[in-house]
Structure formats: C-alpha cells, structure tokens
Amino acid sequence: MVAALKDKLGRTIEYLRLSVTDRCNLRCVYCRSEDDCPKARELPPPAFERIARAFAHLGGKKIRVTGGEPLMRRDLEEIIERIARIPSYRDISMTTNGHGAARRIAGLKNAGLMRLNFSLDSLKPEKYAAITGGGNINEVFEGIDRALEAGLTPIKTNTVLVRGENDLEIDDFIELARLRPIEVRFIELMPIGKFGEDASKHIPSDELVAARKHLKMLPQEAAQPAVTYGIDGYAGKIGFIRAVSHRFCDTCNRIRVTSDGIVKTCLGDNSETSLLPALRQDDSTLIRVLEEAIYQKHSGHHFDDGYQSRRNMNRIGG
Length: 318
What we know:
This protein is of the alpha/beta class. The protein contains ten helices and twelve strands. Strands 7-8-9-6-5-4-3-2-1-10-11-12 form a twelve-stranded mixed beta sheet. It is globular.
C-alpha cells in the first residue's frame, strides 16, 4: 500500500481535480470574462494518465475530471478509461454543465466514470440562459435523468449563489431533493471573475440555514467541503459549501492540475507549478516535481484579504 502523502502542515493530500480543458460551450457570468477566448492548449490523454499515475503513486485515491466543460473533449472517454486503469482510484467523478451529457452517459460509464456533478444555477429557463450565456436547462435535466438511470451516483447539483440573480430560487432548488436521490449543493460565490469581485453579490451560507429551521444537520463525512442537511421525507439532501465564510483549509485534501499542466494547490492563491518540463522527462521526475508542489501547499486561501485571481475559473478547473 502506498503511504499517504502529507504536505508541510501534515494534511493528507489524496484528491486530484484534473481539468482536461478550459473550453466551454457556455459562458457563465461567474466563471468566464466577456473577452475570454480559450485556446486548445490541452494536454493529450497519455499526459493526463501520467499525471494521474504520479498522483496515485503518491497516495492519491480520488480524482475528479473538470473543465471548462469536459464534454468539449471528443477524447474524454479515452481520458476516463486511462484513469480507470489505475487501481488506486476508488472514486472517479466528473463535473459537467450537462449540455451534451445524455448521449454520452453510457460511454462514460463504460469507460470507468463512477459519478457525476451537474452545474445548475437557475431553474427558470430564461434566467438559466442569461446566467449561462445561452444554456438550455432541459439538457441539464435530461443528463441528470440519464445519469440516475445509469447508476452514476451519488449525483450532486452545484449552484453558485449570486445575490440578485438566483437567490430567490433557493427553496425551489431544495425541492429538487424531495423526490430525487440527489444532493443539492449551494456554493458561496468566490472572489473570482465578474460577479465574484462585487462583495454585495455574496451570500453567506449561515444566512440561508438560519432562515430554514426544517433543515437538519446530518453526520458529516471527513474532508468533505460541503456541510450537509436532510429534510424529513426527502429522498435527497442539501449541502452548503462555505469556502468564503467558513474556512475548511485545515482539512483540505486536494490539489488541482489545469488542462495545460499547471499545479494549483489552492483556489485562493496564485502560486503555480508547471509540470510540463517534468512531462518531457521520466516518471520519477514527474513524481518528484508533483510531490514538491504538494508539500509546499499553502496553509489557506486569501479570499478575505483582497485576493484577485490571475485566472478565471474555467482556466483553473471547477
């Protein structure tokens, strides 16, 4: 058994969020700037496999494929299949906006994908289209239904709350968990991108929970970013990711690798380490560079001290 890798603060790092593209078929207001035109600078499938194997060698157990929108990759199934060959990973998941997901669900499951998260920022078709820059909400629910049928569970929906945009739909979102066995998650807006830099748009999760006495806190899973709640009689549950109002940095167990091979150990810090030189060398070099980057992981984010990200979210990985 591979020993768990710890950073300089003693945190066990075993979760990799691997972005395979910064391209997307939508333009969500909190994710991409109006002048952002991603270029295809993505690594090929064998490079992603090498990074995943290096992380597994260091004790990695969990991997999430992100973007941009991963479904923009025609070779996505190959990438998943290569990762699934690595026996260390007990959890292989993916985050998607759901557009084009339904027709690829079977292929992704056959490749080795285990579960899915869907981004869902409004339940009103016109509002959803406005927030996402032209998205079709019907495609999202078609993808969710196909994923449920295929057993790619537990399924989670991710809603980035923006005051004045979708905050009046909170209870409608919660209702999604009444009949569906999904986790409806609300994510605090981070100070990244167009809306994120406007403090008036932020909604603390405590404000939402305090107003809903019927939410009952559930036993919490270790190293999970969401605080989860249940409602009597509901098939699903409700989660709140409170990265801004409640730091969970002391239990953070993840790193991110961008689609062009850059390690980011924290969303709220601009430090980066390129894996490209190491990818041109042998696997032992790649493992060493990745290990060194992880060891230097920062103690916490800088969201509360004027932090400004040099990258939009689509160029980091959700």
